[in-house]
Amino acid sequence: MNYPNWSKDLESSSFNSSQLLVDKRPLVLAVDDNHDNLELLTQILDMFGCDCVGAVDGYEALSAAVDRLPDLIVLDICLPDIDGIELVNRIKQHPKLINIPLVAVTALAKTEDRERILTAGCVEYLSKPFNIDDLESIIRRHLN
Asked: What angle do CA 92, 48, 104 make, to 5 degrees?
C-alpha cells in the first residue's frame, strides 16, 4: 500500500500555523451586586461578542480578575463589601491587573461622582440607566 508522505505534503502546503489561530472573544469581567443588572449586562456583553465572567461584590471581582485576567472590567460603584472606588484602587495596585481598562456603570450620576470615579482610575463612566449603543461604543473602544 502506498501511504502519502504527510510531512512533505504539510511542508509544501500553503496552509500555515497562523491560520490555526481562531479569533478569540474578549473576556469581560462584569461586577454588579444586583443580580438582574448583572444578568442583563452579561447578556448585552455576549451580544457584543464578549465572553463574560460575573461577580456580585468587590472581593469576588478581585479574585475573578486575578484568576482570569479579563481584557476589560465593567463595574458598578455601589457594592456591598468594598465600594467600587476601593476596588478600582486595589486593581490599579495589583501588578497583573494594572493595565486592564475599567469602565464604571453606576447609578451615581452627580458631576462630582463622575470626577471621583474617573480620577480613581476608570477609563470611562456611564450612568444607569445606560444607553446600549453608548455601552457598545465604550466596550469596542477599549477592547480594540
From this structure: 30
Which residue in 124, 125, 122 sits closest to 88, CA to CA? 122
Query: How much is the pLDDT for 94?
Result: 96
Distance CA 27, CA 69 (A): 8
Is it true that domain 24-143 has CATH number 3.40.50.2300? yes
pLDDT for residue 108: 83
Report the distance separating Cα 138 and Cα 29, nearest Å. Answer: 15
pTM attached to this predicted model: 0.82
Domain regions of the chain by residue span: 24-143
Closest CA to 139 of 12, 2, 4, 47: 47
What does R_g of the chain's alpha carbons equal in angstroms? 20
pLDDT along the chain (144 residues), means of 10: 43 43 84 96 95 96 97 95 94 96 91 93 93 95 91
What residues contact 61, with CB distance under 8 A and at least 6 apart?
29, 31, 55, 73, 75, 79, 87
